[in-house]
Design brief:
This protein is of the alpha/beta class. Among the domains are: 48 residues; 134 residues, Rossmann fold (3-Layer(aba) Sandwich), CATH 3.40.50. It has twelve helices and eight strands. The chain has a four-stranded parallel β-sheet with strand order 2-1-3-4, with helices on both faces. A four-stranded parallel β-sheet has the order 6-5-7-8, sandwiched between helices. Helix 6 runs antiparallel to helix 12. Bound molecules: the ligand C=CC1=C(C)c2cc3[nH]c(cc4nc(cc5[nH]c(cc1n2)c(C)c5CCC(=O)O)C(CCC(=O)O)=C4C)c(C)c3C=C and fe (ii) ion (2 copies). One fe (ii) ion binds next to helix 2. Its EC number is 4.98.1.1. Pfam families: Ferrochelatase.
Length: 326
């Protein structure tokens, strides 16, 4: 009987519909928007709005948006996440480290439970949990932890585990983002402004102690410093507002509308909070916001893709994981 500890990696991202249809989007949004970490309103108030208005009316509209960005192999977020899983697994193997890598999603399949079962079947009794959110937020990272804790409640013999809380200022992450911008500017030409657009959260969450906004600003400062940009050459904004209460500001769409009038005619946009391209980058940023900017008098608009499975991103993931081996 060997009692050697075997370590495995649990990569986690948000999840995505299984198909670009109203039915699949409704199932996905239903699970996502029932999470108390995402919407913290009392259920007596929220459930009638969710079931009576949001799910029936938003699902068909959002399904059309998913149709516009869907890839042959599936939803971009899922396709890219699988590539990241394969890339990290190959990089570990090449380094002579025998460590299974499983992929779990907060909402939908493969669930975090499915991924944990895979790791258990591989004999893992020590887990490194890597939520693919560079900036910590209660709505994303803490929700991953909740799912993990719920799973652990069912185990008699708990595995050892490490939880990577955030990596918003990790050197490899900052360098990978800066390299992406530099490569893009070399290929497409430099623009007046680099706009770093982050998924927003309700302002109330920040007031209650969520460090997400501060971490986003820190990431921007570090990327700008790495690129040697002057203060007027970059800006931070927040996108993907949901619901009526104020979210973190300035908003990306309002900024896009104002920029050409302020003399900024060309802009490059990067979305550092998204480790994988998804609806919110490929549709909202690469399409919707481009239209807003160009209609307001902009002349050139470039979306710089997420880090996805870039070799520099996989190297950074490898470093994050290997730091937890000591
Ligand atoms: C990158 C980090 C993310 C944070 C922080 C976040 C907070 C947050 N999101 C919503 C509501 C929605 N988000 C939706 C899509 C979506 N969100 C993230 C990431 C973060 N969300 C990703 C990667 C995606 C894309 C998924 C995909 O399938 O491509 C959606 C669904 C689309 C829509 O209906 O518009 C909603 C809704 C809230 C309320 C919130 C913080 C409280
Ligand atoms: Fe409900
Ligand atoms: Fe979101």
């Amino acid at each position: 009987m060997g009692n050697k500890v075997k370590t495995g990696v649990l990569l986690v991202n948000l999840g995505t519909p299984t198909a670009p249809t109203a039915k699949a989007v409704k199932t996905f949004l239903g699970q996502f928007l029932h999470d108390h970490r995402v919407v913290d309103l009392p259920r007596m108030l929220w459930c009638p709005v969710l079931h009576g208005v949001i799910l029936p009316f938003r699902s068909p509209k959002v399904a059309k948006l998913y149709q516009s960005i869907w890839w042959e192999e599936g939803s971009p977020l899922m396709v890219v996440s699988r590539r990241q899983q394969a890339g990290l697994s190959a990089a570990l193997q090449e380094a002579g480290i025998n460590m299974p890598v499983a992929l779990g999603m907060s909402y939908g399949e493969p669930s975090i439970g499915t991924a944990w079962q895979e790791l258990k079947d591989a004999g893992v009794d020590r887990v490194i949990i890597l939520p693919m959110y560079p900036q910590y937020s209660v709505s994303t990272t803490a929700s991953v932890f909740d799912s993990w804790a719920r799973l652990m409640k069912q185990e008699r013999c708990l595995p050892a585990f490490r939880f990577i809380r955030d990596y918003h200022d990790h050197r490899g992450y900052i360098q990978a983002l800066a390299e992406s911008v530099r490569d893009h500017w070399e290929a497409e030409g430099r623009t007046d402004l680099l706009l770093l657009s982050y998924h927003g959260i309700p302002k109330r969450f920040e007031d209650q102690g969520d460090p997400y906004g501060h971490q986003c600003h820190r990431t921007s400062e570090l990327v700008a410093a790495e690129l040697g940009l002057e203060r007027h050459e970059w800006r931070t904004t927040f996108q993907s507002r949901f619901g009526r209460e104020p979210w973190l500001q300035p908003y990306t769409d309002e900024t896009m509308k104002a920029l050409p009038g302020e003399g900024t005619k060309s802009v490059s946009v990067i979305c550092p909070a998204f480790s994988a391209d998804c609806l919110e980058t490929l549709e909202e940023i690469a399409e919707q916001n481009k239209e807003i900017f160009m209609e307001a008098g902009g002349e050139a608009y470039h979306y710089i893709p997420a880090l996805n499975d870039n070799p520099a991103h996989i190297r950074m993931m490898m470093d994050l994981v290997c730091r937890e081996l000591v």
